[in-house]
Structure formats: structure tokens, C-alpha cells
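Recall the central idea of this unit: under ordinary conditions, the amino acid sequence of a chain determines the structure it adopts. In this exercise we apply that idea directly, starting from the sequence alone.
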Amino acid sequence: MKHVFVETNFLVDLLRPFPVRDAETLFERVANDLILHIPWVSVSEAKRTITTKLIGEDLGFADLVGKLNVHLLKRVYSRVKR
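Accordingly, the structure predicted from this sequence is:
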């Protein structure tokens, strides 16, 4: 078993609304071939970072993509309608 020491950034990348693939891959390996060591302070730091900053960024991005899709669909529909 390998021992991997991670910090706040790992938790933030794993728990954000749109997780980072590298963090997910590392977490999936926990049961197989490694043990993660997370400092206790990282949990509270990650919670603060996610709730104050990242949720708005990630979900704000999703809202923008949704608005872009609606805009594009309206343009396509208006061309087809003619």
C-alpha cells in the first residue's frame, strides 16, 4: 500500500460541483492500492472554499452554458421558421 498525503486542493477538486478528473481517479484508487492522509484542517478549508467561491463559479458556468444553448436554439428555430 502506498501512502499519499493530500491537502485542501485535493478535497476542493474532488468535492466541487464539477469534479476534476485527476482527483476522482486518485480517490477511486483508495480501496485498491493506496491510503490517503488528509490533514484535519483541510476539511474546514475545503468547505469554506467550496461554499464561498466554487459553487458560484461552477454553477455560474453551467447557467451560462444553458443560456448559450437557449440562445442558439432560438437562432436555429428562427431560421427554420422562415
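The two ends are 65 Å apart (CA to CA).
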